[in-house]
């Protein structure tokens, strides 16, 4: 009898599974099937049209059509078919449209889907790269450490070649952006797993008053009940009805609990939601119930990766959920009742069961033979049976990852041949239910889960306060014996996703990588998309055998988030990137301001001609929007003490209406921030900070008040954005401002340099007017209640039209202050610049008993070896060295760097500031500046102030 | 992420806070040596177990809190308002 | 833009079409949708700093985390919010900030405690999210449990909303869920954009300035 798969003949004859053609492996309607035969879904697989039904997965529809090969493996490009018929199936990763790495045994077919195999050339059937089965010795375990190393100049070629062999999909560059979403949730109980235990626990918890989130990876609730017999299906209907009828349960299907972080911070990725690709639910749960069931384990033997070798649960899923016959003639290796049940299901599906190999009687399978699929199976007794299907049922793995993440350390039970949770190490807010906790018949598992659900609700404090009432008595579950079956010892693959063979594990041990953590990293076993759920126990077993240790002694690797691979889109969710705008922003936008991103702020960099803006300020009047400047309102009897502590200079004698410039340092003497502070009243001051330092300084001030001087009475209120701040600068600034203010005497005698007044501007009361420097011209900085900022800005421009007023931006301001030698904290200073290197020597009052950073400044001053902030002018005034250009010492080493550098429109030449070692920091010295292109220019060290050195223009 | 039991706001996600390190005693600036000062700045204990540390509830009440946390288990056994603890009368404003 | 004879106050939240109410340029739209977002920035906002518990706190009559409607005589009725330890915010009708300030200073003068009163009207962007589905909208941008038993009507708290530090005040209106949210002014536009993005699947609509809801008689 020929067991040649009929698919090839059928397809060529009738286009089976293609549009309109019959699907040769589809069975007659069965109870419990999840497909809707009344409707059809048409899709394409590698360009060929196929038809499925709603409810089919991509794999089930293709399998119904007789397809058996869905992918080529990672390294060796071996043909792969169905192994698990579930989300975890390693041979079923495909490209759907522009989405790579889709789990084809989980993704439902949809009309018009364009499905393609990944990284196969020229086709899935005849993949040329499979030739690397012949060059296996070059791709043996750890090959990236051993081969493709020398000669080094060939690395770019190696990379190019290796990259083309990587088993992954494609993301086309013109792919439309996905739509992702996020949501916070606060359920009392999260139940991870919607099988019988999960459903029972959810219902019990909700009945006890808890809000419950029931999360299931498949598209329906039910777990293994879905593909069980009539008794299981009946129980499924009962439990599903109970869930539906019970208020307080939010059911999420096609969703995964991805991790458990401290205090039950639980991310859940939900798919199949209308209008969005994925939603990330960030849940803070009272209690987590882990009920993922058990994952069937593959058996390791020669040929175990051939299409046609599958788990008993795969065969039962295909038959009972999708009405698909998995093959024609089967050998079944069974070690448990589920395997026995699979034999019955196969027979009911018309599969000829040629041999039942019972591992409980010591029988075994040693090899599967075939090239593109199984053709014959070799048994332990030497018999060779012709078959196109080999079904194995050799054991169960507990997917304990969420428990591990909760701090548990599951223990291997050799009697049960699986790991089990250690109740002693579980935190109070995590419980386990279902197969992962123990065995039993359905009644026992459901009763156990019911008690767990009630206890979970109680611990979450549902309806009555945390821990109300006495603990629920949770019955214990027995644990069934199961033979330990991991490897036949005849070779084969341990990790199908990573193409790691049993031999690779023993090779790793021979090379010295004999601990489980080392062996994992060296071989990459368990590092694939299934993350060890199918591989870890077999890997550990083979490792244990190779090192002469027990599985318990060998242990497992550490399970970390995420439980299932997660997309970057889901993690990003809705991008939340705050943006801050000044009240004058609408005007800036309408008048051609070039936006500058400064931290979270959008500011005008210039309005088209920054050099002209500079000139306007020097010769007439300009206005700049400086709203982002930090402003702190300080009130209380102890403000002066606070200022004395924070700043390097003295503040006790600052009179009302006076303003002083201050520099503050951190305790290491490094310059933290600078700004002017003015005294508005007896106990009322207004401090300004740099715009980027506003938040930092506020926290800094609060820290010193709350933790170091709790008895000082100071109230600090940020008013950075309560005021729109406008700096009016230039020889005509007084004229302009005078036109708009009536209740403040702006004359030089009444309102001198470094003073502050309050008054009305352009009809707006409660403005603060400062007469301060920075640009070096006569200037006034007005702080206007922010809601009127746009009004005042517009009035200034209207009132000053005949004075030639124009707006200027951040760039012009940078040039203006550079012409005056003003340092900018964070640009002319960095994270190591202590105050004596910031050009503010006169400000630092070391005779003060204490201020923040004083000890370090005393020592800096004593050492005297610190860099100085100097002015710099290239001899060739047309060359503007880029900022951060290095300055060389005589020996060619680094003596400093250019910190600020611009072309000065006022002087018509390049000017700058630099940090420079003291030996060279003498006015008149010529230094060498190394430009980024490697060339050198000579520059002269000058005074920092390049324009109006006496500073007369700002004191008029 | 762990919950921090802010004494004012109740348990909140740790991301609402900024960690300000283990409390250290500031040496007297008038008499300190460079070694003592730098030890204060840079050399901190790193205990495996309970640590007393300062947290700032930046996205909440904006109070500095003194927290006792176990660096191994993330248990928090106390979280108190630093200023209130140190000068309860000042916060109550004794005349 | 031409000269304004009467200065116009503007919110940081862009809107169109506009109308002028109490000297403020506000949104002219009126929506009857069950879920709405309105810009309440024109409300007067006065900040009080005082010791956490003491005579001043007693004089104010509101503790941290709670709200109350308080009559301030000629300054009118304000919503007094215990927004942080030792910090209260009084919300009142547009244009009444100076009167509220004076009334509060008077009320607190007799305590002899260290007290500051500041006009923060222009320093905060303030919106009202109104409708039964408001918690669903907020669940997209805010990690606070908004269930009734955790944050009942009259709760005041501060947290992170769409990555901006925001004050959240539950102020139900006629039995309908309603929240005031406010943040430092310059982030107002961003906060509204984030709320509208989170609210669009629930049918959130923008509506015009409503003003303070008076306490039920």
UniProtKB/TrEMBL annotation, chain A:
<protein>
    <submittedName>
        <fullName>N-methylglutamate dehydrogenase subunit C</fullName>
    </submittedName>
</protein>
<feature type="region of interest" description="Disordered">
    <location>
        <begin position="1"/>
        <end position="31"/>
    </location>
</feature>
<dbReference type="Pfam" id="PF01571">
    <property type="entry name" value="GCV_T"/>
</dbReference>
<feature type="domain" description="Aminomethyltransferase C-terminal">
    <location>
        <begin position="868"/>
        <end position="948"/>
    </location>
</feature>
<dbReference type="InterPro" id="IPR028896">
    <property type="entry name" value="GcvT/YgfZ/DmdA"/>
</dbReference>
<dbReference type="Pfam" id="PF08669">
    <property type="entry name" value="GCV_T_C"/>
</dbReference>
<dbReference type="InterPro" id="IPR041117">
    <property type="entry name" value="SoxA_A3"/>
</dbReference>
<dbReference type="InterPro" id="IPR029043">
    <property type="entry name" value="GcvT/YgfZ_C"/>
</dbReference>
<dbReference type="InterPro" id="IPR036188">
    <property type="entry name" value="FAD/NAD-bd_sf"/>
</dbReference>
<feature type="domain" description="GCVT N-terminal">
    <location>
        <begin position="585"/>
        <end position="848"/>
    </location>
</feature>
<dbReference type="Pfam" id="PF12831">
    <property type="entry name" value="FAD_oxidored"/>
</dbReference>
<dbReference type="GO" id="GO:0016491">
    <property type="term" value="F:oxidoreductase activity"/>
</dbReference>
<comment type="similarity">
    <text>Belongs to the GcvT family.</text>
</comment>
<keyword id="KW-0560">Oxidoreductase</keyword>
<dbReference type="InterPro" id="IPR042204">
    <property type="entry name" value="2Fe-2S-bd_N"/>
</dbReference>
TrEMBL record, chain B:
<dbReference type="GO" id="GO:0046653">
    <property type="term" value="P:tetrahydrofolate metabolic process"/>
</dbReference>
<protein>
    <submittedName>
        <fullName>N-methylglutamate dehydrogenase subunit B</fullName>
    </submittedName>
</protein>
<dbReference type="InterPro" id="IPR006279">
    <property type="entry name" value="SoxD"/>
</dbReference>
<dbReference type="GO" id="GO:0008115">
    <property type="term" value="F:sarcosine oxidase activity"/>
</dbReference>
<dbReference type="Pfam" id="PF04267">
    <property type="entry name" value="SoxD"/>
</dbReference>
<dbReference type="InterPro" id="IPR038561">
    <property type="entry name" value="SoxD_sf"/>
</dbReference>
From TrEMBL, chain C:
<dbReference type="InterPro" id="IPR027266">
    <property type="entry name" value="TrmE/GcvT-like"/>
</dbReference>
<dbReference type="InterPro" id="IPR007375">
    <property type="entry name" value="SoxG"/>
</dbReference>
<protein>
    <submittedName>
        <fullName>N-methylglutamate dehydrogenase subunit D</fullName>
    </submittedName>
</protein>
<dbReference type="Pfam" id="PF04268">
    <property type="entry name" value="SoxG"/>
</dbReference>
């Amino acid at each position: 009898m020929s067991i040649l798969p009929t698919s090839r003949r059928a397809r060529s004859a009738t286009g089976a599974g293609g549009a309109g053609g019959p699907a040769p492996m589809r069975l007659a309607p069965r109870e419990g099937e999840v497909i809707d035969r009344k409707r059809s879904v048409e899709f394409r697989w590698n360009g060929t049209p196929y038809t499925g039904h709603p409810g089919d997965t991509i794999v089930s529809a293709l399998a119904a059509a007789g397809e058996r090969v869905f992918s080529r493996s990672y390294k060796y490009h071996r043909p792969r078919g169905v192994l698990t018929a579930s989300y975890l199936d390693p041979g079923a990763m495909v490209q759907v449209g522009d989405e790579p790495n889709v789990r084809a045994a989980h993704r439902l077919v949809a009309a018009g889907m364009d499905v393609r195999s990944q990284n196969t050339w020229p086709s899935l059937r005849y993949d040329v790269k499979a030739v690397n089965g012949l060059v296996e010795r070059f791709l043996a375990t750890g090959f990236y450490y051993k081969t493709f190393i020398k000669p080094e100049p060939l690395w770019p070629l190696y990379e190019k070649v290796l990259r083309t062999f990587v088993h992954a999909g494609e993301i086309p560059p013109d792919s439309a952006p996905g739509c992702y979403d996020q949501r916070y949730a606060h359920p009392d109980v999260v139940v991870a797993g919607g099988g019988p235990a999960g459903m029972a626990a959810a219902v019990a918890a909700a009945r006890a008053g808890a809000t419950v989130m029931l999360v299931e990876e498949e598209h329906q609730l039910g777990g293994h009940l879905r593909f069980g017999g009539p008794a299981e299906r009946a129980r499924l209907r009962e439990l599903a009805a109970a869930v539906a009828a019970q208020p307080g349960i939010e059911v999420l299907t096609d969703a995964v609990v991805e991790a458990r972080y401290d205090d039950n911070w639980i991310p859940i990725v939900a798919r199949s939601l209308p209008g969005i690709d994925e939603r990330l639910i960030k849940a803070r749960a009272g209690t987590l119930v882990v009920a993922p069931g058990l994952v069937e384990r593959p058996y390791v033997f020669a040929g175990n990766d051939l299409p046609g070798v599958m788990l008993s649960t795969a065969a039962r899923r295909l038959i009972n959920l999708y009405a698909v016959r998995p093959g024609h003639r089967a050998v079944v290796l069974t070690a448990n009742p589920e395997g026995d049940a699979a034999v019955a299901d196969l027979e009911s599906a018309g599969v000829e069961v040629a041999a039942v190999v019972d591992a409980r009687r010591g029988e075994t399978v040693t090899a599967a033979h075939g090239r593109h699929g199984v053709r014959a199976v070799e048994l332990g007794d030497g018999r060779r049976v012709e078959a196109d299907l080999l079904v194995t049922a050799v054991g169960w793995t507990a997917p304990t990852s969420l428990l591990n993440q909760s701090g548990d350390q599951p223990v291997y039970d050799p009697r049960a041949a699986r790991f089990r949770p250690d109740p002693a190490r579980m935190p109070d807010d995590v419980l386990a239910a279902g197969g992962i906790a123990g065995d039993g018949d359905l009644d026992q598992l459901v009763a156990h889960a019911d008690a767990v659900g009630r206890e979970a609700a109680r611990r979450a404090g549902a309806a009555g306060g945390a821990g109300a009432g006495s603990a629920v008595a949770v019955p214990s579950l027995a644990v069934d014996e199961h033979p330990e079956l991991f490897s036949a010892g005849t070779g084969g693959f341990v990790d199908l996703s990573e193409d790691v063979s049993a031999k690779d594990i023993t090779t790793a041990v021979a090379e010295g990588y004999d601990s489980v953590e080392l062996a994992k990293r060296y071989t990459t076993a368990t590092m694939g998309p299934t993350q060890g759920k199918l591989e870890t126990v077999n890997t550990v077993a083979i490792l244990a055998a190779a090192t002469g240790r027990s599985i318990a002694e060998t242990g497992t690797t550490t399970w970390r988030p995420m439980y299932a691979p997660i997309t970057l889109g889901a993690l990003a969710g809705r991008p939340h990137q705050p943006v801050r705008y000044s009240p004058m922003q609408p005007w800036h936008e309408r008048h051609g301001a070039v936006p500058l991103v400064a931290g979270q702020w959008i500011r005008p960099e210039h309005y088209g001609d920054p050099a002209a803006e500079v000139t306007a300020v020097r010769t007439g009047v300009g206005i700049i929007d400086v709203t982002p400047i930090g402003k702190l309102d300080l009130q209380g009897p102890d403000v002066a003490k606070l200022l004395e502590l924070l700043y390097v200079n003295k503040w006790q004698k600052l009179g009302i209406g006076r303003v002083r410039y201050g520099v503050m340092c951190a305790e290491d003497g490094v310059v933290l921030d600078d700004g002017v502070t003015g005294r508005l009243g007896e106990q009322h001051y207004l401090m300004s900070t740099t715009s980027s330092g506003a938040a930092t300084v506020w926290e800094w001030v609060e820290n010193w008040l709350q933790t170091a001087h709790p008895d000082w009475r100071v109230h600090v209120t940020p008013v950075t954005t309560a005021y729109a701040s406008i700096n009016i600068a230039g020889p005509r600034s007084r004229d302009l401002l005078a036109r708009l203010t009536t209740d403040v005497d702006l004359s030089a005698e009444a309102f001198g340099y470094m003073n502050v007044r309050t008054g009305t501007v352009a009809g707006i009361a409660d403005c603060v007017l400062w007469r301060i420097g920075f640009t070096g011209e006569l200037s006034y900085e007005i702080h206007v209640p922010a809601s009127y900022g746009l009004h005042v800005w517009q009035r200034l421009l209207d009132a000053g039209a005949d004075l030639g007023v124009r707006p200027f931006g951040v760039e012009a301001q940078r040039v203006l202050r550079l012409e005056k030698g003003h340092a900018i904290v964070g640009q002319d200073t960095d994270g190591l610049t202590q105050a004596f290197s910031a050009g503010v020597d006169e400000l630092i009052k070391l005779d003060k008993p204490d201020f923040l950073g004083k000890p370090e400044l005393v020592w800096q001053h004593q050492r005297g070896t610190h860099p100085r902030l100097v002015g710099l002018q290239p001899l060739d005034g047309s060359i503007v060295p880029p900022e951060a250009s290095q300055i060389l010492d005589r020996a060619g080493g680094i003596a400093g760097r250019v910190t600020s550098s611009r072309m000065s429109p006022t002087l018509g030449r390049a000017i700058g500031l630099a940090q420079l070692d003291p030996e060279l920091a003498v006015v008149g010295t010529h230094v060498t500046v190394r430009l980024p292109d490697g060339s050198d220019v000579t520059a002269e060290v000058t005074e920092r102030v390049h324009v109006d050195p006496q500073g007369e223009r700002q004191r008029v | 992420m762990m919950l921090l039991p802010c004494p004012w706001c109740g348990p909140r996600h740790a991301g609402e806070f900024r960690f300000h390190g283990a409390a250290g005693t500031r040496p007297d600036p008038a008499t300190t040596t460079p070694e003592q000062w730098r030890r204060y700045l840079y050399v901190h204990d790193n205990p495996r177990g309970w640590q007393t540390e300062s947290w700032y509830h930046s996205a909440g009440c904006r109070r500095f809190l003194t927290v006792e946390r176990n660096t191994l288990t993330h248990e928090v056994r106390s979280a108190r308002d630093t200023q209130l603890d140190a000068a309860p009368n000042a916060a109550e404003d004794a005349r | 833009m031409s000269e304004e004879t009467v200065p116009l106050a503007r919110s940081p939240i862009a809107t169109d079409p506009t109308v002028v109410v109490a000297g403020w340029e506000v949104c002219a739209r009126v929506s009857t949708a069950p879920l709405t977002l309105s810009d309440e920035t024109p409300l007067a906002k006065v900040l009080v700093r005082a010791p956490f518990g003491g005579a001043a706190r007693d004089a104010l009559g509101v503790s941290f985390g709670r709200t109350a409607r308080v009559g301030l005589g000629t300054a009118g009725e304000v919503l007094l919010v215990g927004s942080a330890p030792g910090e209260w915010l009084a919300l009142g009708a547009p244009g009444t900030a100076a009167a509220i300030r004076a009334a509060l200073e008077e009320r607190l003068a007799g305590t002899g405690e260290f007290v500051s009163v500041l006009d923060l009207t222009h320093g905060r962007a303030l919106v009202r999210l109104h409708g039964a589905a408001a918690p669903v909208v907020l669940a997209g941008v805010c990690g606070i449990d908004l269930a009734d038993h955790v944050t009942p009507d009259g709760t005041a708290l501060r947290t992170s909303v769409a990555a901006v530090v925001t004050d959240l005040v539950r102020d139900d209106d006629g039995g309908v869920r309603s929240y005031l949210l406010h943040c430092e002014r310059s982030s107002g536009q961003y906060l509204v954009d984030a709320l509208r993005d989170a609210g669009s699947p629930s049918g959130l609509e923008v509506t015009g300035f409503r003003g303070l809801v008076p306490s039920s008689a």
